[in-house]
Every structure is written in C-alpha cells, then in structure tokens.
Please model this.
Amino acid sequence: MARRPGAVTRERRLQAVSAWLDKPDALAAEFAAGETTQRIRTFSQAAPDDLVAALDLLGRLKGVGIVVHGPRGCAAALVGAAPLAHWAVTGLDQRDTIMGSEGVVERAVLALVRRHEPWAVFVVTTPVVAINADDARDTVLSLTDELGIPVQLVRTDGFKSRVAATGFDAACQALLNLVPAVAEARQDDLVNVVARDAAAARASAALLEELGLKVNVLPAGADAEGFARAARARLSICVDPDATMVFAAALEAAHGVPVLRAGVPIGLAATRRWLDAVAAAAGQASAGILVAPPYQPAMTRGWKRAAASDKDGAAERALHGVRVHLALPADAVFAAAELVTELGGVVAGVTVGHIDSSHAEALDAFTRTHPGVTLHVAAGQPFELVNLLAKQCLDLFMGTPELAALAAAAGVPAVGLTPAALIGWRGAARLAERARAALTNPAFFRRLSAAPSPYAAGWLRRSADWHVKQEVR
Model:
C-alpha cells in the first residue's frame, strides 16, 4: 500500500523563510511577489525539528496517550516537558531499524492503553522511521477498531523542512479527527480559543469573559469533552496562529465553525481592535473600548484598576526613548513592536524563529512604521544573536526567557516574557514594570557580561549572517 504523505512543509505551503538578516522591506517585497528565495545555513548551531514541535503540541492535551515510534532519544523532548499526556516510546534499536519493527507499535499502544486508559492515542513517527520507510498506518487503523478509541498517526521526519512549525501542522491534522462528526446545535455565546499555550488561552479567555462570552479552550489542556464542544461554537479565535491555525481552519472546513483572523491581543491598541472584532463577530456589545492616547485606550474594568495605581503616568513613559530589540515568535513580535511604540520606545531590531506568507500583512505594516529596522530570522542560532546584539546600540532586549538570558549574559539589560505574558492590558503593564526594573539596574548586566564568552573572538568579528547563503538548486 502506498504511503500517505505527511503534512506539507511550511516552505512549500507558506513559502516559509528560516534564515535571514537584512532589512524587512526586501523580504516583504518577496512575499508580495509571491515567491521567496530560500536561504540556507552552512553552519547551524542547533534547531528544533518538526518532531519536537508535534510532541510539544500533543503533549498539552489532557488524558491522551502518545507513542513515539523511534529510538529512545526521539522522546527526549517529552522527558523535561512534564506533558499532560501519557507517553511511551517504541525504543527502536539497530536491528529493528534494519530488519523492520513489525508489531512493536501495536505492543506499545496496547501497553499504554492498559496502564493509563487514554481517551485517544497518537502514534508519532520519527526521522528514523522516515529513513527505513516503516509504515504504521495499517496498525493504527486496526487499533482504532480494536480499542474503540481514536488512534491517530502523526508523521514527522525531520528532513523535509527547516521550519519546526511543520510539526504543528502534522499534529493539527490529527487533532481534527478528535472532533465528533455529528455536531449538536450551535451555542451562540460559545467561542473556541484555539491555543497551544495554556497561559495565552487563560489571558485571552479573561478578555472574552468581559464580553459575556463562554470559552472553550483547545488544544491546550483540552480533554474529550472540549473537543466534543468544538463544533458547537459560534466561532474560533487563534491566539498563537503559527501553532494552531491549521486546526482552526480545518475545523471551519469540516464543521462550519468560522475562524476570526484578528491578530494577537498584544498591546493596548491591538487589544482594543481584537475585542471589537470579537464583539462584532459574536454579536455582542463593543464593551465600551475607547480610542485614547498611548497606554490609556483599553477602558475595561481591569485597565481602570491598573490606571488607578499609576496616577502619574509612569507606565506610559516606561520606554521613552529606549532602543529595544525584540525576539518573539513571528505571530506575536509585530504586535509587541506596536506595544513598545505605545510605551514610547524605539524598535531597533527584531528576531523571529521563522517567517512565512501568513505574516506578510503584518510584516508589510511593520516595514512602513519601522523603516530600516534589522530583521533577523533564526531558530536555535544563539551565536548569531549574540553577534548581532554586540553590533547594535541597544538599551533593552525583550524576548522569550531563554533568549533574554542569552542577551543578559552579553551585557544587555533584558526582560524575559513569553507572548502569553504580553496579552491584554495586563501584558502592557507587565512589560512596563519589568522594563523599568531592568533599566534601573545596568550594573547587574555588566557583571553578567564579565564572564568569559562561549564564543571565540573570531566568530564574533564576522558578520552575524556569515553562514547564511542563498540556496542553489
């Protein structure tokens, strides 16, 4: 039987770029022309692959089982992640790889089901299985009938794509099969918040509850009941589209639940627009969101509490004149740039893991409002980021905690925040508070930078994009 193809790579589906260091207008022009020129790295320090991304997403489901079909090391991403899912690994050895591993998937699934009684099981294939062409599809189909629960095959191979988010797409295709085929009547006040990150889902749900809406969060923390409710919702909202838009779009195609494409509610102006868009789509009142000067637009109950504790307007001036480098996922970084501007800061540079045509509109708007800003596209290349930061005249670095730690070690005052921590008015207040703390203690970061650098001086004398070359076919 012919093998069924896995998820289409992000490079093919969305013209994703994983290597870039230049002004953003050139890349925006490539997306506008409908064809990007791929770049490759002649040296790559480290980078997650599609297997890691797929396991990350599936591991956030409550009460499911995951069988990693490959050597033991392929399940390493689950060891330190404390997933909500139960998991096992088939533990292929050299003999299994050469002679075939018939029966090992079935035994692993049955053992996992006997021990933990999951309501669904995902069999995730790995690069080793992709090499030896081991096909677990027939086994998965037979187990679904035998066990009476969904058993889904998720194909990853680690070779076809340089963009780890391809693994999110593969996982999302399997997630759709958890939604019952026969839906109950629509519930007009129910909204799906489609999120990979539970913290982002909670922050978004808090905003939606002010509109009088009920929230069904999935896949983060979802169980069988959550997926059963998914097709009853009035609409779906993605708060981290890079990871979950494929699922939301598939839910729309299969069950008619429309997807609201309203961006990410990071920054006060963006939060206002997001709430207004949700209210309009859900037929709710506009929640009294007002247009006002920076740091004062979102007059929700929560913002009134925040404003009351900041009578002198210090929050509004938190980043006045401060040059900031941002390092966040692409679906959040451009909204975060708007927030930095709202707080009076200046965006000096942006780092993202990858960028694709789904970000083209936001990239184009960013190019117009921040001309000349350096765009750095790299995942798992800390030596490039350290090199770049050393050549920029920065006052503050703001990014994910692991990258903020890297910047702090390089002597740059740094704030580590996930996109979830920036959502809504609370996110704006949180960034202002953390930024003030970092900027008032530069001696701490100078002491950190006194430690020996892990990179030789010769590496840092080169340009940060020394190893980025245009792909030749």
Remarks:
- Residues 289-312 have pLDDT under 50 and may be disordered.
